[in-house]
């Protein structure tokens, strides 16, 4: 078993495919070296060695032995042999009194764990080699500064003496010299200090600081192995789902210096612009500097060339200062991008005019850049279109679709809730829908804060920039409506308590503190993270007009086997959805029309009617309103199918709750308020989610469904008369027993025939049902006989399959906590494949077994979730339907799912 | 195709197996005749003839023809040939001037439709034969009375002249003679009247009354055919699920007369006593009377012998008056019972000393009689034990287990609700549990009337004779608790509105009227029918000590492959259950103990505790109480398994609701009432059925389950120390995700080991789970790994599979209405095999696929429903568990199910 893999000098033992054995960094260094790129030579000790070493270490610890242990037999010999190769390539000698080879020793796991594990730099320095280094650099101070850094780092990482113990000595020296920064200390100062540092090590630990470079190297390798098992590394792995058993590789590599003079530099570059994806070589550098200087921001880095917009003309660029080195770098960036087929983020150092590549990796990018790079690279032939589609994810599109909090902005997080609808919003707090409307009319941005929302809050939600609720889950009313509106929303924020006096208290579990926020105070919400922040926080705007998005989504549509429709309740929603590329309406919730001004009173009169005659009269008032809404929907969706669901919620949802509303209704209906109150009480339900709703209403109160069918088909004929192509689909909700659909299908057809006879015209339409109860899925073979199409209502199906009320499922936050991990994900966000998914599969397969051409879709919240889309694509569904603002994400996901199917 | 089947003279063309062709009556007459029993001779015209005739009739009506139609070609010739045979057997002549044969013409369908269809008696009388009949009977008045009855009946049934048109003439005659009853009219009076009746027929209809017996017979046969399709017959068939296409047979039979003198009699007899099943020949008769006289009750019938208890010594019996005829009847009853193998109800007539059997059928009987007869007959060898078990049904046992309203008692029904718990009760109305206790303490029987009940009403329910609720379904709290207590209960009585002022209004949909009932008024409930009645209504007591019941249930246990356990929450419940033969406890709901006096405060303190320390302190108060309850349970169930479910309901169910309760709790906890109110509000749930309950509590608040496990296992050790054999089974409720059970099983085991270490003793126990969510059934193959047993909670499984809240499912009354028929039965009463049953099957099969010896039971309400028991027996379940008072029914059903499997 090979334990050490060398790289450098244009060859390598390993390759990029060996990440498990060599770690990400080691594999990448090998790959770059094989490509002939100038990486500083070095070698990688495999993760297998680490695993063995740690196993032995744990065994020793179990026996009560000391917390260090020799390296495996013979390993040091192999290491020294590898060091020999490095010496040859780099033209340096390890421990040499001229041109000494100095080494870095770094960890490198299968997956990057930034900052979690240990590194030792400048290894190989001692009282002899430091002089040689000074000579080589022509800079004694540089050499001694490197030396003291090495001693401090080695003492901390390898010997276990906390760096503050040594920094105290440096501070003493600064005081005695009357200076404030280390940079002001001279080479002579460091010459005095280094022996003091070593003496402090000996005093504290009882061991001398190793002068022998070989001993230094062995200690550093052991320390890096051990750092895999520190508490902070273990915690990080648990948080990020990284397996404890993987271990880390150790990369030993020749040090190169960008700070050996003015023919030295160090920098970072991207093969394309990571902000907008523009296709030019982008990067920054500093002359005579170390890598950390670029990151630290003490000196302003300079652009490598003048291709970026807005480059300061007074700053010299790398192509001007070191044109040969720049040319080499330029060559390298082309090799890298064409080799990796993606935009690369690379780190380089120029040591005395010689370019070294320290690292390359796939570059992080904004959403806009991700889209543009993917489309450009496909057009350039660097990747194919399927790969372009795979390169863009939900997060990228969310950035394009919604404003987002600037990741670097300062913020005070006062509470965290569930991220229910993405985007960010700043505004003044209000506590009622009416206050929201009043304040918004003055032009102020508004954040609506509620304990929870109900359909009566919709007018307030529609004018608010963001919505925050104390209660409710990912599919609570607030969450569903906000996503439908593309409005930023945080729900289920139990760290907030809304008071009746027009204020709320925020007490975050993490971070502590307590705030009282009053109406009119400004807060910022992040609907992508669930953070609630004090005051205004800097954010970046949505940039939907990203270059390439339309193209990318067209490619997605071409690849997809499923259509993407939208859940849209109004003509305005429908137009938004069509703008985002929806291929029809998959769910129009007719009841959302009921809450509009001037309608709710008629709805209430209908519900509270004492006789069928009175109810019919009230329904007649609603009929023209519904008809005209439907005409608008059909017109907006000209040529595309429109699925309209008949009334679904329990009737009590429409009744008034406050005394004022009850009095108003009583006046309008000319009945005593007490009688209305009694009716409201009579209709109250213990578990409304499982109550008298959906098709159960259609069975007990057929007159409501009859009115709706009439409005739909009259509207369809109206729209057709205006030249539109109309495909209405009438959907019966909450069917659990085939007889429900049988009875209601007959009712729809009877009413349809009456409309057609009256209009002396016919129109083709379909009748289908929602599968949203376990029993419907279980008996889908029966139900299919009466259905032209199925649409899975996975919100309710998830509720009933798990027995979770989405409005009460606060315990889900505990369930998905990685420390508890009862569930891997919130099943209201990503479909539960194991349970709910079985029912979706069963419903689809059993339905199609009796009706092979049954059209099947999904219109729950999961219709906009990529993982869920991938799952239902695998089941052969015909379409997904989601809120308008999710349509682009769903189109992309549908395309990706089809490619991977 | 044979159209006519003759019977009489000891032979018959047909038999009892030909009910579809000959109708029930015709088939039975044929059977009796074949047995050599003396039935009056006659013949049956088949149902097929009726179907053909009516089809032709409908066709004619479709063509606008007259509403009568000739009989099929040749039928009349066959009829007359059959009449000839009757003449020969009976020694009479049809239309003869001496010894005239008179006939009855009756309908007779496959299933009896009492009073729904037409009959003509005394057919064959005319101005000539009437004289001959008078001579034969030696009673001219008898002949003319028969004649005028025939004319009136024939005019009504065959000619369509309503009988009131002719009765007017009889009334005129009574007036002119100065008499008040028809009995006072003489033969001469009838001689004057009969021609007047015929004249009135001719005036009204324009046709003469037929004198020709053959013409009379043809008309009567046609009329009986037509009567199949009257509106009332159609309605009756719809109500009783009888197929319209079956048609009726027509039975033409020689008339025999029990009223031709003192050597004549008529009566009804049973082969055993139908009240208690005692094995002797039981019956009543009247000398010189017609069958209707026995039924009408004008004369007091006499016992046929002196074998029954309490026979009036002054009344002569049949064996004394007509000993030869009695001997013949006695012979007949033995033949009949041994032939049919069941207790028979027979009608007989003695004409001039000659016994005729008019009818025999399986006799209706009380529950007590059913049990005794079944056991006796099996012991006598008349039937085998399986048949004995099949002879007794749920209704019979319900009569034994609960008092029932006397079916003949006068009553005023003021409302109808759902029959939730069988039995009947009379008492004074109270509206709160506390009032119930106070009034019951004075010795008054109490009926508790509530809008609905909650666990806080239990003390009132336990002292009430009966419970009536306005809301809730068959598995609402009231229904479940009442059944558990064996208490009469009517729920979901929406015809009642409970007012806050201590009264309720009742407005029945059927029958009309409106009543206001105040506290202290007396009402009667029938929990078997759902009727609410005014005042006290006569009832018969429960008679559990029925002779033979224990034997029958032992036979059931021997036959059964499933055990029957009880749902019992307290030691008292457990003792009741054991008395009824329960083979263990299948479900102990630990939370029911929480509501008892002195505990609820500790429970509330536990729930509202601010810190884990305070919660633990409150739990420590509950621990000894739970432990001592469990000891009681284990002792009562010595030697049998006891399944204890850990806490299931959402915590807010235990919190106070009224201001007074909140204040009391605040005082006890020394916190402000406002703080408690806020907590109550915070814990409120929109859909508590699907909320934070069951194992979800166990995950978020493990300290509660830990306390319960400790109490269970300490109690088990305590009971064993007292010499009991204890098998505890700890059941985790509401598991939907395998990780829930995995985590909680580990918790139970950890707590168990701690108990065992402290006690220095171990006890075997099992850990299992309820399958009550669709997801649990779907993933049962995963869950089984951590379960020693499964118990299907079919109440919740029905709720979630259908998406029905049992407390809100008023619409189910519409769904099961036969006119709507969305569902065949209430799925909360009888398991829905098609949907819920699939999940039960899946849960069982998938669980046993990975753990073949997995013990599986059912502990929902369905565990006491015979149809559901039959279903789960077919799935191979190991046991059912039901409320103690259902145990006998479940034992019987389990035995029956195994026999039929």
Main beta sheet strand tally, sense and closure of chain A: 8 strands, mixed
Give the strand content of chain A.
15-25%
Structural class of chain A: alpha/beta
C-alpha Rg of chain A (nearest Å): 34 Å
Task: Please tell me about this protein's structure.
The structure is a homodimer of 901-residue chains. Chain A contains 34 helices and 34 strands. Chain A is elongated, with a radius of gyration of 34 Å. In chain A, helix 5 (140-159) runs parallel beside helix 7 (187-205) and helix 20 (571-579) runs parallel beside helix 22 (612-636). The first copy, chain A, has 901 residues and is α/β, with parallel strands linked by helices. At the A-B interface, helix 25, helix 27, helix 28, helix 30 and helix 31 of A face helix 25, helix 27, helix 28, helix 30 and helix 31 of B.
Which key features would you list for this structure?
alpha/beta, 17% strand, homodimer, 901 residues, eight-stranded parallel β-barrel, elongated
Short account of what is shown:
2 copies of one chain form a homodimer. Chain A is an alpha/beta fold and 901 residues long. Chain A contains 34 helices and 34 strands.
Sequence-ordered SSE layout with sheet pairings:
2 copies of one chain form a homodimer.
Chain A lengths: L3 E5 L2 E2 L6 H16 L7 E4 L1 H16 L12 H16 L2 E2 L5 E2 L1 E7 L9 E5 L5 H9 L2 H20 L3 H15 L9 H19 L7 H15 L3 H10 L7 E7 L10 E6 L11 E6 L3 H6 L5 E2 L14 H4 L1 H18 L3 E8 L2 E9 L4 H14 L4 H6 L3 H8 L2 E2 L7 E4 L1 E4 L2 E7 L2 H9 L4 E5 L7 H6 L2 E4 L7 H9 L2 E4 L4 E4 L3 E4 L8 E4 L3 E5 L4 E4 L4 E2 L8 H11 L3 E5 L3 H9 L5 E5 L10 H9 L3 H25 L4 E5 L13 H11 L3 H11 L11 H6 L1 H20 L5 E6 L5 H22 L6 E6 L2 H5 L1 H4 L5 E4 L1 H9 L8 H6 L19 H15 L4 E4 L7 H9 L4 E4 L4 H14 L1
Parallel strand pairs in A: 4-5, 17-18, 18-19, 19-20, 27-28, 27-34, 28-29, 29-30, 30-31, 31-32, 32-33, 33-34
Antiparallel strand pairs in A: 1-2, 1-3, 3-8, 6-7, 6-8, 9-10, 9-12, 10-11, 12-13, 14-26, 15-25, 16-20, 17-24, 21-22, 22-23, 24-25
């Amino acid at each position: 078993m090979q334990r050490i893999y060398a790289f450098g000098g244009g060859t390598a033992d390993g390759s990029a495919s060996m990440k498990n054995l060599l770690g990400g960094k080691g594999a990448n260094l090998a790959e770059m070296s094989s490509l002939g790129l100038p990486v500083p030579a070095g070698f990688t000790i495999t993760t297998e060695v680490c695993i063995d070493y740690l196993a032995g270490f744990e065994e020793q610890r179990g026996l009560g032995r000391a917390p260090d242990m020799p390296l495996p037999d013979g390993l040091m010999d192999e290491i020294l042999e590898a060091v020999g190769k490095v010496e040859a390539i780099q033209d340096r000698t390890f421990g040499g009194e001229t041109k000494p080879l100095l080494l870095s020793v770094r960890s490198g796991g299968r997956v990057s764990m930034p900052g979690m594990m240990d590194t030792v730099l400048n290894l190989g320095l001692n009282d002899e080699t430091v002089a040689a280094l000074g000579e080589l650099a022509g800079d004694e101070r540089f050499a001694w500064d490197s030396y003291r850094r090495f001693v401090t780092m080695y003492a901390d990482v390898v010997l276990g003496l906390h760096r503050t113990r040594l920094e105290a000595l440096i501070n003493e020296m600064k005081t005695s010299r009357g200076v404030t920064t280390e940079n002001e200390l001279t080479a002579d100062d460091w010459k005095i200090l280094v022996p003091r540092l070593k003496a402090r090590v000996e005093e504290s630990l009882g061991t001398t600081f190793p002068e022998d470079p070989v001993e230094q190297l062995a200690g550093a390798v052991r320390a890096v192995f051990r750092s895999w098992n520190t508490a902070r590394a273990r915690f990080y792995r648990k948080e990020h789902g990284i397996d404890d058993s993987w271990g880390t590789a150790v990369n030993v590599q020749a040090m190169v210096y960008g700070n050996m003079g003015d023919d030295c530099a160090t920098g970072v570059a991207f093969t394309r612009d990571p902000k907008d994806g523009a296709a030019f070589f982008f990067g920054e550098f500093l002359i005579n500097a170390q890598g950390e200087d670029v990151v630290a921001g003490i000196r302003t880095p300079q652009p490598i060339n003048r291709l970026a917009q807005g480059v300061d003309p007074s700053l010299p660029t790398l192509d001007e200062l070191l044109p040969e080195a720049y040319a080499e770098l330029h060559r390298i960036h082309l090799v890298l991008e064409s080799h990796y087929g993606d935009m690369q983020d690379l780190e380089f150092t120029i040591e005395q005019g010689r370019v070294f590549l320290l690292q390359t990796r796939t570059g992080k990018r904004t959403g806009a850049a991700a889209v543009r790079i993917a489309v450009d690279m496909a057009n350039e032939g660097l990747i194919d279109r399927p790969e372009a589609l795979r390169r863009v994810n939900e997060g990228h599109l969310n950035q394009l679709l919604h404003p987002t909090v600037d990741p670097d902005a300062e913020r005070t997080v006062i509470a965290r809730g569930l991220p229910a609808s993405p985007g960010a919003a700043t505004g003044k707090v209000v506590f009622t829908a009416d206050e929201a409307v009043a304040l918004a009319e003055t032009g102020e941005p508004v954040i609506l804060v509620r304990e929870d929302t109900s359909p009566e809050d919709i007018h307030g939600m529609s004018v608010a920039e963001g919505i925050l609720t104390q209660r409710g889950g990912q599919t609570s009313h607030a969450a569903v409506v906000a996503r439908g509106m593309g409005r930023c929303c945080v729900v289920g924020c139990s760290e907030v308590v809304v008071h009746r006096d027009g204020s709320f208290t925020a007490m975050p579990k993490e971070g502590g503190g307590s705030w009282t926020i009053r109406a009119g105070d400004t807060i910022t919400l992040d609907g992508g993270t669930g953070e609630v922040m004090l005051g205004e926080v800097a954010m970046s705007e949505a940039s939907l007009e990203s270059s390439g998005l339309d193209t990318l989504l067209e490619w997605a549509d071409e690849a997809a086997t499923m259509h993407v429709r939208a859940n849209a309740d109004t003509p305005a929603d429908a137009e938004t959805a069509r703008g985002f590329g929806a291929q029809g309406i998959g769910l129009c919730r007719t009841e959302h029309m009921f809450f509009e001004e001037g309608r709710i009173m008629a709805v209430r009169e209908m519900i509270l009617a004492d006789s069928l005659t009175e109810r019919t009269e009230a329904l007649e008032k609603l009929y023209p309103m519904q008809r005209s809404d439907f005409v608008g929907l059909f017109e907006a969706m000209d040529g595309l199918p429109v699925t309209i669901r008949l009334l679904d919620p329990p009737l009590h949802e429409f009744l008034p709750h406050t005394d004022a509303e009850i009095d108003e209704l009583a006046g309008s209906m000319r009945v005593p308020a007490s009688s209305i109150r009694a009716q409201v009480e009579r209709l109250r339900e213990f578990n409304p989610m499982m109550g008298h709703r959906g098709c159960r209403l259609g069975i007990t109160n057929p007159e409501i469904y009859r009115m709706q069918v009439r409005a739909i088909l009259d509207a369809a004929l109206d729209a057709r008369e205006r030249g539109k192509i109309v495909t209405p689909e009438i959907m019966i909700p909450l069917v659990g027993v085939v007889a429900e659909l049988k009875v209601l299908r007959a009712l729809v057809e009877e009413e349809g025939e009456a409309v057609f006879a009256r209009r002396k015209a016919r129109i083709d339409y379909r009748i289908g049902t929602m599968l949203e109860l376990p029993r419907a899925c279980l008996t889908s073979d029966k139900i299919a006989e009466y259905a032209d199409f199925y649409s899975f209502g996975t919100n309710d199906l998830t509720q009933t399959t798990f027995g979770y009320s989405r409005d009460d499922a606060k315990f889900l936050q505990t369930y998905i906590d990685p420390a508890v991990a009862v569930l891997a994900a919130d099943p209201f966000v990503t479909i539960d494949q194991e349970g709910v998914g079985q029912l979706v599969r069963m419903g689809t397969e059993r339905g199609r077994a009796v009706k092979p051409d049954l059209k099947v879709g999904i219109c729950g919240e999961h219709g906009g979730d990529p993982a869920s889309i991938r799952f239902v694509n695998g089941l052969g569904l015909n379409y997904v339907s989601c809120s308008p603002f999710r349509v682009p994400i769903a189109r992309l996901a549908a395309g990706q799912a089809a490619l991977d199917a």
